[in-house]
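[audit] Reproducing an earlier prediction to check determinism. Same input, same settings, fresh worker. If the tokens differ from the archived copy the diff job will pick it up downstream; this log only records the rerun itself.
[audit] input (264 residues):
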Amino acid sequence: MNIHLRDEGPKTDQDPIVLIHGTSASLHTWNGWVDELKQGRRVIRFDLPGFGLTGPDPKNNYTIERYADVVVAVLDELKVKKAVLAGNSLGGYVSWATAVLNPERVSKLVLVNASGYPSQAKSVPLAFKLSQNPLASAVLKNVLPKSLVAQSLRNVYGNPDLVSDELVDRYYDLALREGNREALKERFKQSSPGLLFDRIKTIDMPTLIIWGGKDRLILPKLGKQFEHDIANSQLLVFDELGHVPHEEDPQATVLAVKRFLESN
């Protein structure tokens, strides 16, 4: 499988930062963080199978274990022995699952509104709901209104007014990549929250947990659960941000990451 990837910053960095996006996002969601981090650190980001320009997994495998294997395969391909893993939502799930399954490859964790615990959302983006409905997903395979993408993005922002036309266009264009809409349905089916969560307490590397206080998809109480279950962790809540705080306010959130990396 070909992976769409960007590798920026000094290649001499022996402990690079790997950024892993969430469901229906892409490596572009980290643009704000990368602009800041790449000045002194090597930063690697890529589109997960089923999303962005990577597109669908040829084996139709979207289990959480498969995603963790992909992370390790990317590290192997780039000859990286160990890295800081930072992930949002599904990407956070992939990050901590990789740390559970391959702890020797992970030096630190940054979990941004991470999924993985069984949970009940207060509000789910309409696109996510429809992709899990057999009839609706069949329709979306052929027809995708841009308004649906815009509505779903506004749903995950603390301040919906920050969702620009340019942002909607990017998410929309990447959703149209052949195979991505069908893959979304399979991703929800194969890697639902709750798998491996009983092993979160085995994580012992330094961990920063960032949460948007207005997240209605993965509630802030689950950030506190991560902090409780991961011994060497700290939780920072940004009260006015939503489910994608790194994208909504990259400047404030990346400063917290830089402080964490410098102090651990």
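[audit] rerun output stored. Observation attached for the diff report: The chain has a mean pLDDT of 92.
[audit] end
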